[in-house]
Amino acid sequence: MNNQTFLVEIGTEELPPKTLRSLAESFADNFTNRLNQEGLIHGEIHWFATPRRLALQVEKLGTEKRSYVITKRGPTIQSAFDSNGEPTLAAKGWAKSCGIRVDQADKLITNNGSWLTYCFKKIRPCVQILLPEIIEESLTRIPIPKVMQWNESKVQFIRPIHHVILLLGDTLIETKILGICSTRTTRGHRFMGIPYFNIKHANQYPEILFTLGKVQANYHVRKEFIRKEINKAASIIGGEVILSEELLEEVTSLVEWPVVLTGRFKKNFLQIPNEALVQTMQSHQKYFPIYHQSGELLSYFIFVSNIESKNPEKIISGNEKVLHSRLTDAAFFFHKDRYYRLENYLPYLKNVLFQKNLGTLYDKTQRVKKLAGWIAMQIGGNINKAQRAGLLSKCDLMTKMVCEFTETQGFIGMHYARQDGESEEVAIALKEQYQPRFSGDGLPSSQTSCSLAIADKIDTIVGIFGIGLHPKNDKDPYALRRIALGILRIIIEKKLPLDIHALTNETVRLYENQLINSNTIDDVIHFILGRLRSWYQDKGHRNDTLQAVLARRPFKLVDLDLRINAITQFRFLKQATDLSETNKRISNILAKKTDTLNAKVHRELLIEPEEIQLADQVNNLYSILPLYYADFRYKEALMKIASLNTIINNFFNKVMVNSTNEALRINRLTLLYKLQSLFIEIADISLLQDNF
């Protein structure tokens, strides 16, 4: 048979759960790409992943030998021969690499040039020879941040490899993959099923693993089974689970035979802030907390075991004891922290570095306090509340709760601030200062929260840029790209009247003499605005629209956003095309001028009716357009400008711009310059490509 099922399984030590899926998908992608490069016909490719294996199953893999044509392109005809028509060294070297003489080469002639070429047939090796090469290359191309070496062969992979299976139909391909000889033997579950057994045919995978080895190798099936069982278990006790996809993926990657169980903890632990309880269960124990339909946390948890026990109560009891110990620690730290007010932790920030060249967290806190108040003043917020939030913003980092449960920073600050009697707006700001933490995350809810979040983020960016440690290439150790996008999202989506230039300038001022980069302000603004490109592209805006608007340097981001939306809406109307063509015509005329233009259009030099009419309309627009701009009605302003199209065409049809009369010529060029100035007030439309 020419088409057969192919199976490869790589058995390893336990793979890192947070990257298991990406490892499997990368393996599958690399393998698929290499099959396609070799021209191997194949059906659907399925990937499988468990904590101790990566596997691929290929349907209907073509196994017959085939010949294919390879074309090697050589030097251009011009460089292949000298003035006497003799082959050059370049031509001879290329021909030698092909195993031919220069006179045996063909010539490829196209509109773009002419080259020497050589075509020859090659028979592809049989798949039994190709597949091991493809597999090993596919494995080595998996992006692995840290590899391991486990024997004297110096072979490296993310984890030690124990077994390799390569089956083409029922035939074992005998080879070595990363130093391990291939066999038919796979491993079952560590504690259930048959520990070792042979796979006779590639079609048996993954069913044979499931029935004999008690291993569910299908990642997607395993994940959906866990999801279904978790929801079922929660409903039994009258609760529900807010499933974290990230945690669900991690748990799926930790088990080969999932068994979902429910445990409980003492109700008195519910006195601890929910965020601390949830973080303890999710981050430390990989448990799923259960909520009442009203949103209250229940004293139950769900976990996924990797074994089907005859006595599940023992497993449940063991997990309850572990969680009890963790929550006992949390309760101790929580009550210990309450001996002091949140503000009492402020002096301890002097002992923690923010950055060695930028001072301590206490220094940062003082800057953020002042900057948050300044931002609140700019956006109409409460200055006192913003400053208070800034002062308390990092205090919870010194508490025992956050030191032990780092993921609770911000949340704990909010709870402690409430207990101290701080205003609710200040308390919530302490939690929301870190938002948005990731793409799609929620934004701060109040002006106080926005002021603090922006102040904290811009202080970091300015400080790092100010000492010359800005991101380079793909290295961004301070996550400044994410922070910058967070600033943009808050200002634009919350429609805050904040000037990014003034904000950066004020931040630099607060650093006083600590910054050594004299171009910090320009560098920071360029960096922050540079984050807009991908963001607006994701929203469906074209890159040239953004560039055209940025050319006008609108530092108020809300204004910039309105301009971009106006241009995007306007550019596909017929009036937009007419306006673009008119702008190009005027630009071409003005580019060729040698005269010095007047400061204004002299009415006494307007002779033709068409130029008088155009001048009147231009003057009228100079009077009314500022009213449109003041209300940010940019699309309407563009429509007003575009309404001049007929008058402009009449002007060009009837009036000789480059008159031999110098005074008339300069006056008409000045009129066109004034007209063009109207075009570029909103955006430099000369930067817009076709289809304005």
TrEMBL record:
NCBIfam families: glyS. It is found in: Cytoplasm. Belongs to the class-II aminoacyl-tRNA synthetase family. InterPro entries: DALR_anticod-bd, Gly-tRNA-synth_bsu, Gly-tRNA-synth_heterodimer. Its main location: cytoplasm. Its EC number is 6.1.1.14. Keywords: Aminoacyl-tRNA synthetase, ATP-binding, Cytoplasm, Ligase, Nucleotide-binding, Protein biosynthesis. Tetramer of two alpha and two beta subunits. GO terms for molecular function: arginine-tRNA ligase activity; ATP binding; glycine-tRNA ligase activity. It catalyses: tRNA(Gly) + glycine + ATP = glycyl-tRNA(Gly) + AMP + diphosphate. This is Glycine--tRNA ligase beta subunit. Residues 582-678 form the DALR anticodon binding domain. One of its GO terms (biological process) is arginyl-tRNA aminoacylation. GO terms for cellular component: cytosol.
